[in-house]
Amino acid sequence: MTGANRLSVDRERCIGAGMCAMTAPAVFDQDPDDGLVLLLEAEPAAADRAAARMAAGVCPSGAITVPDAGPGGSGGPGGSGRSATPGAGGA
């Protein structure tokens, strides 16, 4: 992943559930002060990308954005370039 393919988090949207940190601890953590998401690796190693996509999919607030994997790649949960929470965005 490079540039536009970086993961992003919206701390304003985060509710501190911690699902991301439990699902992909090499990529996400929780701020010890406010409990909100901390992005440890915006461009995770190949071995951590599937867990990062899964974390986006289980995030109850849709605070994690996983961009498309690109040509030949599998976007997987969250691979749409927007948050992976079902129903997010009024859909």
In sequence order, what are the helices and strands, one letter per element? Answer: EHEEHE
Strand tally = 4
Shape: globular
Q: Helix/strand/pairing class, anyone?
A: alpha+beta
How are the strands of the biggest sheet laid out side by side? 1-4
Bin the strand percentage: 5-15%
CA radius of gyration is 12 Å
How many DSSP H or I helices? 2
Biggest sheet architecture: 2 strands, antiparallel
Structure description:
By secondary structure, this protein is an alpha+beta fold. It has 2 helices and 4 strands; from the N terminus they run βαββαβ. It has a two-stranded antiparallel sheet. A two-stranded antiparallel ribbon has the order 2-3.
List keywords for this structure.
91 residues, alpha+beta, two-stranded antiparallel sheet, globular, disordered C terminus
